[in-house]
Sequence to fold (455 residues):
Amino acid sequence: MRKNVVVIGSGPGGYVAAIRCAQRGMKVSIVEKGKIGGVCLNVGCIPTKALFKNAAFIKDLKKSSSLGVDVNGYTIDFAKMMKRKDSIVKQLTTGVKQLLKKNGVEVIEGTAKIFDSNTVKVHTSYGDVVLSTDHIIIATGSASITPPIPGIELDGVLSSEELLSQSVLPKSMAIIGGGVIGMEFASIYNIFGVDVTVIEKMPNILPSFDEEVTASLSEVLKERGVDIRVNTQLNSIKRHNGKLELSLGAQKLYVDTVLMSVGRRTVLPELLNVDILIENGSVVVNDYMQSSIPNIYCIGDANGKMQLAHVASAEAIVAADHISLGDGKKMSYKTNPSVVYTIPEIASVGLTEKEALNSGEIKTGRFKYGWNGKALCMDETEGYMKVVSETKYNEILGVHIFGYDASNLIAEAGLALGLEATADEIAHTIHAHPTISEIFMECCEEIAFKSIHGF
Fold:
């Protein structure tokens, strides 16, 4: 049977695109060579958030006496934590499978090759399947980069995917790369009691985020005992007396485990009789997610735009609507939030303060969590929010949060950017009291005139 759409990859881009196309009455097949749900659901965003909850709970236990609850010690059962993580993953992957079935999407397990612009060949356990189709959506994601460092192949040198399959906590760990993945694991495993060292070759961790915010995170993690070494290059790894010896220029570091988190590379299906424009290993796409061959689309990490699950899902809707409706909205990244699930969290949307300054005069409004009633009640006083606006209309250009529940607070900021809201408009929007969301209102009041509760 001829298909209207064949989707290659079932991650947060692929399965969303498949379901949306099916909802619009199209005949859809989705091909997956690994596990339904892709990296994010199985070995990425979801598993790490399960462990994030464990770490956050331990952090609360450590300060419980200040809340009038005395806890006489605790024991970490890491194997049990991992079983809980696996249970959550299983529940969600089962849900995705059910959604695909409910919407009539055919799921084919196997490795896809794009034979030509209207044909996909799939190698399965029961033989080869040939799919004729009007449209193809590439949603094959990315994989961890393995840098050419001597000793990278040694036991105990792990990717983030491999680390999430371990059932025993190491006593010490070096994390190579101070990006999002590296800093999330640093925060979580430090709270688990692991001696963590972060090795970053750049001058700062999280280089794409607001410098003030990342400096705050670095300070907090160092106070908790995380050793963060910037401007430091890993030269080699070898075994020494049962440990992994890391050569860091003139320095040596000895640890039980090494996490390699230096970035991710695009993964693409084999392309046979198609000449798709590819730059730096990624498929080049237009605002509708079309490749240089108009009926072949590419979404998510495979197009190299932004390696974020929620971006992949947004691109999936754009591609599916363009296929099924013939037009639809263009993809916009203006309101795309970035989140780092450290403790405290970091969340950001729009321009950083430095980027905004480069484009003209700005105003900033800051408000600390410690000045907020709900944050005090929750004993979550660490951190602040910063809002950046232009000066003519006070239009909001960027919002940056370092603190509790930043990942949820950033949604209102994204909406504000999407609606081109001014600080005055947010300041005059009544926020429930007491809530942590009032911090956004206070920041905007600071820009519009003067915050009532700021010091």
